[in-house]
Write a structure and sequence with these properties.
Blueprint lengths: L13 H16 L20 H16 L9 H4 L5 H14 L1
Helix pairs in contact: 1-2, 1-4
Length: 98
């Protein structure tokens, strides 16, 4: 899809990143978005396995590539993301760095 079609999508603030992560996780895990908080642990609270996290990364990369050219989440960084807050902070920092 040409980048011009997504010019209406502006930069995300931290809350916007959280809502995006929450929406993606709810879809992947087939749970209500409201049950996902920033303090939720992927494994203990959400019972998300490594496949679910890979799906989350792919979904975020796809969505955010429309806003930030070349947005990627590095595989080696994935093991450091234990909670929703970790993921939101990581994605937001990468977006801020541009």
């Amino acid at each position: 899809m040409p980048a011009e079609t997504h010019t209406s999508k502006g930069p995300l603030d931290r809350q916007g990143v959280f809502l995006l992560v929450q929406e993606q996780l709810a879809d992947i895990l087939e749970i209500e978005p409201g049950t996902i908080s920033e303090g939720s642990s992927f494994q203990e609270d959400l019972d998300a396995d490594s496949l679910a996290l890979i799906e989350l990364v792919e979904g975020l990369e796809e969505e955010l590539a429309e806003r930030t050219v070349g947005f990627r989440i590095d595989d080696e960084d994935l093991e450091d993301l234990k909670t929703v807050r970790d993921a939101v902070d990581y994605v937001f920092a990468k977006l801020e760095a541009g």
